[in-house]
Amino acid sequence: MIRKLSKLIYSVLVFCLILCSCISYGSTKEVNHWISAWNVSTTNFTRLKSFGLFNYNNRTIRTIVTSSFSGTKERIKFSNEYGTEPLSIGAVSVSLVNSDGTLKNQTNKSLTFNGKKAVNVKKGAFVWSDPVEINIKVLDKIAVSTYFPKGIKEVTGGCGGVETYFSQKGNHINSSNTKKDYKLEVMSGFPNICPFLSSIEVSTSESNGSILAFGDSITTLSWPEYFIKELKDNNINNLSVFREAIAGNRILHDTVSDMMGIFGVAGISRFEKAITNHEGVGYVIVLEGINDIMSTGPGGTSPASEFASADQITAGLQRYIDIAHKHRLKIYGATIMPFKGYTTYTDEEETRRQEVNNWIRNSGKFDAVIDFDKTTLDFKNPAKLKLKYDSGDHIHPNDAGGEAMAKSIDLKLFK
Protein backbone atom coordinates (compact mmCIF):
# COMPACT_ATOMS: atom_id res chain seq x y z
CA MET A 1 0.00 0.00 0.00
CA ILE A 2 2.78 2.37 0.98
CA ARG A 3 4.66 1.51 -2.23
CA LYS A 4 1.57 2.28 -4.36
CA LEU A 5 1.05 5.57 -2.53
CA SER A 6 4.69 6.54 -3.12
CA LYS A 7 4.35 5.81 -6.84
CA LEU A 8 1.16 7.88 -6.99
CA ILE A 9 2.82 10.84 -5.25
CA TYR A 10 5.84 10.55 -7.56
CA SER A 11 3.58 10.50 -10.65
CA VAL A 12 1.70 13.57 -9.43
CA LEU A 13 4.95 15.46 -8.82
CA VAL A 14 6.28 14.59 -12.28
CA PHE A 15 3.00 15.70 -13.86
CA CYS A 16 3.13 19.02 -11.96
CA LEU A 17 6.71 19.65 -13.04
CA ILE A 18 5.83 19.00 -16.69
CA LEU A 19 2.76 21.23 -16.43
CA CYS A 20 4.76 24.07 -14.85
CA SER A 21 7.42 23.73 -17.52
CA CYS A 22 4.83 23.95 -20.29
CA ILE A 23 3.18 26.99 -18.71
CA SER A 24 6.54 28.69 -18.28
CA TYR A 25 7.56 27.92 -21.85
CA GLY A 26 4.25 29.10 -23.26
CA SER A 27 4.41 32.40 -21.38
CA THR A 28 7.98 33.27 -22.37
CA LYS A 29 8.11 36.57 -24.21
CA GLU A 30 10.85 37.76 -26.53
CA VAL A 31 12.83 40.56 -24.92
CA ASN A 32 13.47 43.59 -27.12
CA HIS A 33 16.05 46.36 -26.92
CA TRP A 34 16.88 49.50 -28.91
CA ILE A 35 19.73 49.36 -31.42
CA SER A 36 21.11 52.12 -33.61
CA ALA A 37 19.98 52.14 -37.24
CA TRP A 38 21.78 55.44 -37.89
CA ASN A 39 23.93 57.72 -35.73
CA VAL A 40 26.38 60.63 -35.76
CA SER A 41 28.93 61.71 -33.16
CA THR A 42 28.09 65.24 -32.06
CA THR A 43 30.52 68.14 -31.79
CA ASN A 44 30.25 71.92 -31.55
CA PHE A 45 29.28 73.27 -34.99
CA THR A 46 28.75 76.86 -33.84
CA ARG A 47 31.90 78.10 -35.59
CA LEU A 48 30.39 77.12 -38.94
CA LYS A 49 27.71 79.79 -38.53
CA SER A 50 30.34 82.29 -39.67
CA PHE A 51 30.14 80.62 -43.11
CA GLY A 52 26.43 81.43 -43.40
CA LEU A 53 25.13 78.06 -42.19
CA PHE A 54 22.35 77.25 -39.72
CA ASN A 55 20.15 80.31 -40.14
CA TYR A 56 17.10 78.39 -38.97
CA ASN A 57 14.94 81.11 -37.38
CA ASN A 58 11.35 80.15 -38.34
CA ARG A 59 12.59 77.51 -40.77
CA THR A 60 12.34 73.77 -41.27
CA ILE A 61 15.31 71.48 -41.88
CA ARG A 62 14.93 68.09 -43.54
CA THR A 63 17.55 65.47 -42.83
CA ILE A 64 17.63 62.36 -45.03
CA VAL A 65 19.54 59.31 -43.79
CA THR A 66 19.90 55.62 -44.67
CA SER A 67 18.63 53.00 -42.25
CA SER A 68 20.96 50.07 -41.56
CA PHE A 69 18.28 47.91 -39.96
CA SER A 70 14.66 46.84 -40.42
CA GLY A 71 11.94 47.45 -37.88
CA THR A 72 8.43 48.66 -37.19
CA LYS A 73 9.02 50.79 -34.09
CA GLU A 74 11.57 53.61 -33.97
CA ARG A 75 12.65 56.51 -31.78
CA ILE A 76 14.68 59.59 -32.71
CA LYS A 77 17.22 61.59 -30.70
CA PHE A 78 17.91 65.33 -30.80
CA SER A 79 20.98 66.76 -29.09
CA ASN A 80 21.67 70.18 -27.61
CA GLU A 81 24.90 69.00 -25.99
CA TYR A 82 26.86 72.15 -26.88
CA GLY A 83 24.03 74.62 -26.41
CA THR A 84 24.17 77.25 -23.68
CA GLU A 85 20.43 77.86 -23.79
CA PRO A 86 17.37 75.67 -24.47
CA LEU A 87 16.77 74.51 -28.06
CA SER A 88 13.17 75.12 -29.15
CA ILE A 89 11.72 72.52 -31.52
CA GLY A 90 8.24 73.39 -32.78
CA ALA A 91 7.31 70.22 -34.65
CA VAL A 92 8.92 67.11 -36.16
CA SER A 93 7.80 64.55 -38.71
CA VAL A 94 9.41 61.34 -39.99
CA SER A 95 8.76 59.65 -43.33
CA LEU A 96 10.15 57.18 -45.82
CA VAL A 97 11.64 58.75 -48.95
CA ASN A 98 11.35 57.87 -52.64
CA SER A 99 14.41 57.80 -54.90
CA ASP A 100 13.54 61.27 -56.26
CA GLY A 101 13.56 62.79 -52.77
CA THR A 102 9.80 63.03 -52.37
CA LEU A 103 8.12 61.59 -49.30
CA LYS A 104 6.40 58.23 -49.73
CA ASN A 105 2.63 58.42 -49.60
CA GLN A 106 1.02 57.61 -46.25
CA THR A 107 4.31 57.18 -44.39
CA ASN A 108 4.72 60.71 -42.99
CA LYS A 109 4.06 60.74 -39.25
CA SER A 110 4.34 63.44 -36.60
CA LEU A 111 6.66 62.80 -33.69
CA THR A 112 5.77 63.55 -30.10
CA PHE A 113 7.84 64.08 -26.96
CA ASN A 114 6.04 62.91 -23.82
CA GLY A 115 2.87 63.20 -25.88
CA LYS A 116 3.51 66.76 -27.08
CA LYS A 117 4.49 67.89 -30.59
CA ALA A 118 6.81 70.68 -29.39
CA VAL A 119 9.76 70.32 -27.04
CA ASN A 120 12.47 72.45 -25.47
CA VAL A 121 15.77 70.58 -25.23
CA LYS A 122 17.67 71.78 -22.18
CA LYS A 123 21.16 73.21 -22.59
CA GLY A 124 23.80 70.50 -22.56
CA ALA A 125 21.15 67.79 -22.88
CA PHE A 126 19.37 65.59 -25.40
CA VAL A 127 15.86 64.23 -25.85
CA TRP A 128 14.35 61.08 -27.36
CA SER A 129 11.04 61.15 -29.18
CA ASP A 130 8.22 58.87 -28.17
CA PRO A 131 8.31 55.61 -30.16
CA VAL A 132 6.71 55.86 -33.61
CA GLU A 133 5.55 52.98 -35.77
CA ILE A 134 6.88 53.01 -39.35
CA ASN A 135 7.77 49.89 -41.33
CA ILE A 136 11.44 50.49 -42.21
CA LYS A 137 13.65 48.15 -44.24
CA VAL A 138 17.44 47.98 -44.53
CA LEU A 139 18.75 50.72 -46.87
CA ASP A 140 15.47 52.64 -46.77
CA LYS A 141 15.86 56.41 -46.90
CA ILE A 142 14.30 58.20 -43.93
CA ALA A 143 13.45 61.91 -43.81
CA VAL A 144 13.27 63.71 -40.46
CA SER A 145 11.77 67.19 -40.87
CA THR A 146 12.22 69.57 -37.94
CA TYR A 147 10.67 73.02 -37.52
CA PHE A 148 12.62 75.60 -35.51
CA PRO A 149 10.39 78.55 -34.55
CA LYS A 150 13.21 80.62 -33.04
CA GLY A 151 16.78 81.62 -33.84
CA ILE A 152 19.55 79.29 -32.71
CA LYS A 153 22.66 80.53 -30.91
CA GLU A 154 24.82 77.40 -30.62
CA VAL A 155 24.72 74.40 -32.93
CA THR A 156 25.31 70.79 -31.92
CA GLY A 157 25.87 68.58 -34.94
CA GLY A 158 27.63 65.70 -36.61
CA CYS A 159 28.63 64.27 -39.98
CA GLY A 160 27.98 60.99 -41.73
CA GLY A 161 25.55 59.31 -44.09
CA VAL A 162 23.19 62.28 -44.31
CA GLU A 163 21.77 64.95 -46.60
CA THR A 164 20.46 68.09 -44.89
CA TYR A 165 18.11 70.61 -46.51
CA PHE A 166 16.57 73.85 -45.25
CA SER A 167 13.26 75.43 -46.22
CA GLN A 168 11.96 78.90 -46.80
CA LYS A 169 10.39 80.63 -43.79
CA GLY A 170 7.77 78.63 -41.92
CA ASN A 171 6.76 75.13 -40.90
CA HIS A 172 7.18 72.78 -43.88
CA ILE A 173 7.45 69.41 -42.11
CA ASN A 174 4.61 67.99 -44.22
CA SER A 175 5.92 69.20 -47.57
CA SER A 176 6.30 66.13 -49.80
CA ASN A 177 8.66 67.59 -52.41
CA THR A 178 12.14 68.05 -50.93
CA LYS A 179 13.81 69.35 -54.09
CA LYS A 180 11.09 71.93 -54.70
CA ASP A 181 10.58 73.26 -51.19
CA TYR A 182 14.07 72.88 -49.69
CA LYS A 183 17.68 73.79 -50.50
CA LEU A 184 20.71 71.61 -49.75
CA GLU A 185 22.82 72.66 -46.76
CA VAL A 186 26.42 72.09 -47.77
CA MET A 187 29.88 73.43 -47.03
CA SER A 188 33.10 72.50 -48.79
CA GLY A 189 35.35 70.49 -46.48
CA PHE A 190 32.50 69.50 -44.12
CA PRO A 191 30.51 66.81 -45.90
CA ASN A 192 27.29 65.32 -44.64
CA ILE A 193 26.50 68.05 -42.11
CA CYS A 194 23.70 67.15 -39.69
CA PRO A 195 22.58 69.66 -37.04
CA PHE A 196 20.80 68.50 -33.85
CA LEU A 197 19.46 65.16 -35.12
CA SER A 198 21.90 62.59 -33.74
CA SER A 199 20.43 59.10 -33.73
CA ILE A 200 17.64 56.82 -34.95
CA GLU A 201 17.06 53.58 -33.08
CA VAL A 202 14.92 50.53 -33.84
CA SER A 203 13.25 48.26 -31.31
CA THR A 204 14.24 44.68 -32.02
CA SER A 205 14.95 41.31 -30.41
CA GLU A 206 17.92 41.09 -28.06
CA SER A 207 19.29 38.42 -30.41
CA ASN A 208 20.05 41.25 -32.87
CA GLY A 209 22.98 43.63 -32.43
CA SER A 210 25.24 46.23 -34.00
CA ILE A 211 28.59 46.93 -35.61
CA LEU A 212 30.08 50.29 -34.58
CA ALA A 213 32.34 52.10 -37.08
CA PHE A 214 34.65 54.38 -35.08
CA GLY A 215 36.87 56.94 -36.73
CA ASP A 216 37.36 60.27 -38.47
CA SER A 217 36.16 61.95 -41.69
CA ILE A 218 36.82 58.87 -43.83
CA THR A 219 34.20 57.01 -41.80
CA THR A 220 31.73 59.89 -42.23
CA LEU A 221 31.84 59.08 -45.96
CA SER A 222 30.21 56.23 -47.85
CA TRP A 223 31.97 53.01 -46.88
CA PRO A 224 29.57 52.21 -43.98
CA GLU A 225 26.55 52.45 -46.33
CA TYR A 226 28.23 50.11 -48.80
CA PHE A 227 29.05 47.79 -45.90
CA ILE A 228 25.36 47.75 -44.91
CA LYS A 229 24.58 46.64 -48.47
CA GLU A 230 27.24 43.89 -48.29
CA LEU A 231 25.68 42.52 -45.12
CA LYS A 232 22.21 42.61 -46.65
CA ASP A 233 23.31 40.98 -49.91
CA ASN A 234 24.91 38.16 -47.92
CA ASN A 235 21.85 37.59 -45.72
CA ILE A 236 23.43 38.87 -42.51
CA ASN A 237 20.24 40.39 -41.16
CA ASN A 238 20.91 40.39 -37.42
CA LEU A 239 23.35 43.33 -37.31
CA SER A 240 22.97 47.06 -37.84
CA VAL A 241 25.88 49.36 -38.71
CA PHE A 242 26.31 52.82 -37.26
CA ARG A 243 28.99 55.48 -36.92
CA GLU A 244 30.81 57.17 -34.08
CA ALA A 245 32.94 59.27 -36.43
CA ILE A 246 34.11 62.89 -36.28
CA ALA A 247 35.77 64.76 -39.15
CA GLY A 248 39.31 65.79 -38.22
CA ASN A 249 39.29 63.65 -35.07
CA ARG A 250 42.55 62.39 -33.58
CA ILE A 251 43.30 59.51 -31.26
CA LEU A 252 45.51 61.44 -28.85
CA HIS A 253 44.55 65.13 -28.82
CA ASP A 254 41.43 67.27 -28.57
CA THR A 255 40.53 69.87 -31.19
CA VAL A 256 42.87 72.86 -30.98
CA SER A 257 41.28 75.92 -29.36
CA ASP A 258 40.96 78.06 -32.49
CA MET A 259 38.81 75.34 -34.14
CA MET A 260 36.23 75.69 -31.33
CA GLY A 261 35.57 71.97 -30.92
CA ILE A 262 34.63 71.08 -34.49
CA PHE A 263 36.98 68.09 -34.55
CA GLY A 264 35.86 66.83 -31.16
CA VAL A 265 37.67 65.53 -28.13
CA ALA A 266 40.47 62.98 -28.49
CA GLY A 267 39.43 59.48 -29.48
CA ILE A 268 40.85 58.06 -26.25
CA SER A 269 38.52 60.41 -24.35
CA ARG A 270 35.36 59.49 -26.26
CA PHE A 271 35.86 55.83 -27.15
CA GLU A 272 34.43 54.16 -24.04
CA LYS A 273 31.33 56.37 -24.05
CA ALA A 274 30.87 55.65 -27.77
CA ILE A 275 30.86 51.88 -27.36
CA THR A 276 28.76 51.77 -24.19
CA ASN A 277 26.10 54.39 -25.01
CA HIS A 278 24.38 52.06 -27.48
CA GLU A 279 22.64 48.78 -26.67
CA GLY A 280 23.58 45.66 -28.59
CA VAL A 281 27.07 46.57 -29.81
CA GLY A 282 29.04 43.39 -30.50
CA TYR A 283 31.77 44.56 -32.86
CA VAL A 284 33.88 47.70 -33.32
CA ILE A 285 35.79 48.64 -36.50
CA VAL A 286 38.44 51.31 -35.82
CA LEU A 287 39.84 53.43 -38.66
CA GLU A 288 41.72 56.31 -37.07
CA GLY A 289 45.20 57.80 -36.82
CA ILE A 290 45.64 59.71 -40.09
CA ASN A 291 44.99 63.06 -38.39
CA ASP A 292 47.46 62.28 -35.61
CA ILE A 293 50.06 61.72 -38.33
CA MET A 294 49.45 64.63 -40.65
CA SER A 295 47.70 67.46 -38.76
CA THR A 296 51.00 68.79 -37.33
CA GLY A 297 52.62 68.82 -40.78
CA PRO A 298 53.15 71.85 -43.04
CA GLY A 299 49.89 73.80 -43.21
CA GLY A 300 48.19 71.44 -40.75
CA THR A 301 45.54 72.44 -38.21
CA SER A 302 47.49 71.39 -35.09
CA PRO A 303 50.57 72.86 -33.38
CA ALA A 304 53.94 71.12 -33.67
CA SER A 305 53.85 70.52 -29.90
CA GLU A 306 51.14 67.92 -30.54
CA PHE A 307 53.35 65.77 -32.80
CA ALA A 308 52.48 62.09 -32.33
CA SER A 309 55.06 59.38 -32.86
CA ALA A 310 54.15 55.96 -34.23
CA ASP A 311 54.63 54.47 -30.77
CA GLN A 312 52.29 57.02 -29.22
CA ILE A 313 49.62 56.35 -31.87
CA THR A 314 49.80 52.58 -31.43
CA ALA A 315 49.64 53.04 -27.65
CA GLY A 316 46.39 54.94 -28.23
CA LEU A 317 45.06 52.11 -30.39
CA GLN A 318 46.02 49.67 -27.65
CA ARG A 319 43.86 51.66 -25.23
CA TYR A 320 40.91 51.20 -27.62
CA ILE A 321 41.58 47.47 -27.65
CA ASP A 322 41.79 47.23 -23.87
CA ILE A 323 38.53 49.17 -23.41
CA ALA A 324 36.68 47.10 -26.02
CA HIS A 325 37.85 43.85 -24.48
CA LYS A 326 36.88 45.10 -21.00
CA HIS A 327 33.33 45.34 -22.33
CA ARG A 328 33.62 41.95 -24.08
CA LEU A 329 33.45 43.37 -27.59
CA LYS A 330 35.40 42.24 -30.62
CA ILE A 331 37.51 45.02 -32.10
CA TYR A 332 38.90 45.02 -35.64
CA GLY A 333 41.71 47.36 -36.66
CA ALA A 334 41.67 48.99 -40.11
CA THR A 335 44.97 50.04 -41.64
CA ILE A 336 45.49 53.74 -42.36
CA MET A 337 45.08 54.59 -46.03
CA PRO A 338 47.67 56.43 -48.20
CA PHE A 339 47.58 60.22 -48.61
CA LYS A 340 50.55 61.33 -50.73
CA GLY A 341 49.54 64.45 -52.62
CA TYR A 342 47.48 65.85 -49.73
CA THR A 343 48.47 69.39 -48.72
CA THR A 344 50.29 68.44 -45.50
CA TYR A 345 52.00 65.28 -46.79
CA THR A 346 55.69 64.64 -46.06
CA ASP A 347 57.88 61.56 -46.46
CA GLU A 348 58.37 61.48 -42.69
CA GLU A 349 54.61 61.25 -42.20
CA GLU A 350 54.51 58.37 -44.67
CA THR A 351 57.15 56.56 -42.61
CA ARG A 352 55.01 56.91 -39.49
CA ARG A 353 51.95 55.66 -41.38
CA GLN A 354 53.84 52.55 -42.46
CA GLU A 355 55.07 51.97 -38.89
CA VAL A 356 51.54 52.21 -37.48
CA ASN A 357 50.15 49.94 -40.18
CA ASN A 358 52.88 47.39 -39.52
CA TRP A 359 51.80 47.30 -35.87
CA ILE A 360 48.11 46.98 -36.79
CA ARG A 361 48.87 44.08 -39.15
CA ASN A 362 51.45 42.18 -37.14
CA SER A 363 51.10 42.89 -33.42
CA GLY A 364 48.23 40.46 -33.00
CA LYS A 365 46.50 42.89 -30.64
CA PHE A 366 43.33 43.45 -32.65
CA ASP A 367 40.89 40.56 -32.94
CA ALA A 368 41.28 40.88 -36.72
CA VAL A 369 42.69 43.28 -39.29
CA ILE A 370 40.79 44.99 -42.13
CA ASP A 371 43.39 46.13 -44.65
CA PHE A 372 41.91 49.29 -46.17
CA ASP A 373 45.43 50.44 -47.05
CA LYS A 374 46.02 47.43 -49.27
CA THR A 375 42.57 47.80 -50.83
CA THR A 376 42.91 51.45 -51.83
CA LEU A 377 46.60 52.06 -52.56
CA ASP A 378 48.14 52.59 -55.97
CA PHE A 379 50.38 49.55 -56.46
CA LYS A 380 52.78 51.56 -58.62
CA ASN A 381 53.03 54.24 -55.92
CA PRO A 382 51.91 52.75 -52.58
CA ALA A 383 52.02 56.10 -50.78
CA LYS A 384 49.11 57.31 -52.94
CA LEU A 385 45.46 56.40 -53.25
CA LYS A 386 44.53 54.55 -56.41
CA LEU A 387 43.32 57.19 -58.88
CA LYS A 388 39.89 55.63 -59.36
CA TYR A 389 39.35 55.74 -55.58
CA ASP A 390 40.61 59.31 -55.02
CA SER A 391 37.98 61.98 -54.32
CA GLY A 392 40.42 64.60 -55.60
CA ASP A 393 42.08 65.73 -52.38
CA HIS A 394 44.30 62.59 -52.26
CA ILE A 395 43.21 61.58 -48.75
CA HIS A 396 39.46 60.96 -48.82
CA PRO A 397 38.07 58.09 -50.93
CA ASN A 398 35.24 58.69 -53.38
CA ASP A 399 32.17 56.44 -53.57
CA ALA A 400 34.04 53.87 -55.66
CA GLY A 401 36.70 53.77 -52.97
CA GLY A 402 34.06 53.42 -50.26
CA GLU A 403 32.47 50.51 -52.10
CA ALA A 404 35.86 48.80 -52.51
CA MET A 405 36.57 49.25 -48.80
CA ALA A 406 33.25 47.66 -47.87
CA LYS A 407 33.74 44.73 -50.25
CA SER A 408 37.21 44.05 -48.77
CA ILE A 409 35.80 43.33 -45.30
CA ASP A 410 35.69 39.60 -44.48
CA LEU A 411 32.06 38.96 -43.55
CA LYS A 412 33.01 35.79 -41.67
CA LEU A 413 34.14 38.14 -38.90
CA PHE A 414 30.48 38.86 -38.19
CA LYS A 415 28.97 35.38 -38.29
TrEMBL record:
GO terms for molecular function: hydrolase activity, acting on ester bonds. It holds the Pfam family Lipase_GDSL. Transmembrane segments: none annotated. SUPFAM superfamilies: SGNH hydrolase. It comes from the Bacteria. InterPro entries: GDSL (IPR001087), GDSL_Rv0518-like (IPR053140), SGNH_hydro_sf (IPR036514). PANTHER family: GDSL-LIKE LIPASE/ACYLHYDROLASE, PUTATIVE (AFU_ORTHOLOGUE AFUA_2G00820)-RELATED, GDSL-LIKE LIPASE_ACYLHYDROLASE, PUTATIVE (AFU_ORTHOLOGUE AFUA_2G00820)-RELATED. This is Lipolytic protein G-D-S-L family. It comes from Ruminiclostridium papyrosolvens DSM 2782.
